[in-house]
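INFO batch 0412 | record 1 of 1 | parsing
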Amino acid sequence: MQKSQAFFRNASLGICVLAVIFAGCQSATATKIVQAASPSLTASPRHTAIIVATLTATTQPTPTFAPTPTPAAAPFFDQFVAAIKNGDATKVVGVYVENVLALKVVQQPSNNPAFVSGVKGVATYFSMVKKQTGNTGLLAHNYLAGVYYYDLVPGQVVVLIYGDGRTEEFTVSDTLQYQALNPTSPTSNFVNVLTGEKLSSTALFTKVYGGNPKTTFQTCIAQGNEPSWGRLFVIAPED
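INFO prediction complete | emitting C-alpha cells
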C-alpha cells in the first residue's frame, strides 16, 4: 500500500520586498519614518523623499519533499508462488513451509511410477497416492530435497501451491520412521522404529497415505552403507 503525501499548497516563500518611491511629494508617514531613523535629519517638503521599505514576511520553512519510497520487496512466499505458477489449476507445482522449505514440485512421468526427481530443491508428486486415495504424496531423495523433511515437526503449516496460484493448507501432525526389513525389495515389510509395529508394504502405504485428506512427505533413511535402510514419513492432515 502507498500512503499519499501531503504537499504544501499556495505557500509564500522567501522574502517579500516592497519598494515605495515617492517622487515630488512626501507623506506624513514618510517624514516620521525618516526622522525616527535619523533624528538629526529634518524632512523638508522641498526635498524629494525616496523611501525604500523592506518588509520581511514571516519566513516559512522551505518544504522538503520526501523521495518516493522504493516499493518493498514482496514477501518471499509471494515471490515463490509467482516463480512456479504455470497456469495449470489441476496440478500441485510447489510446497512451502515457513522457515523450513520452499520446493518446486514436478509430476512423475506416466510410464514411470517410481520416478523421483534428481534435481536439488525439487520434490516429486507421487501419482499413485492421488489415484489410490485422493491425497497428496511428495517424494524426495534424502540427499536432495528430502533433507528438509527431517526439519518438519508437528504444528507446522504446509502450503500446497497449484499452477494457478491457488493454495491448500495442512498441518503436520506426525513424523514416523520405519525400517525396511528388506531394503532392496519394493514389497518389503516394515517395522516402526519407535513402537516395533510391523506392517506389510501395502498396509504401510494405506496407513501413511490413506484416510482423511492429507499431505504426506516421504524420503529414505540411510543407515551405515545402506541408503534405503528405512523410510521417513511426515503426515500433515488438512486444516
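INFO post-check: The CA atoms of residues 220 and 231 lie 4 Å apart.
INFO record closed
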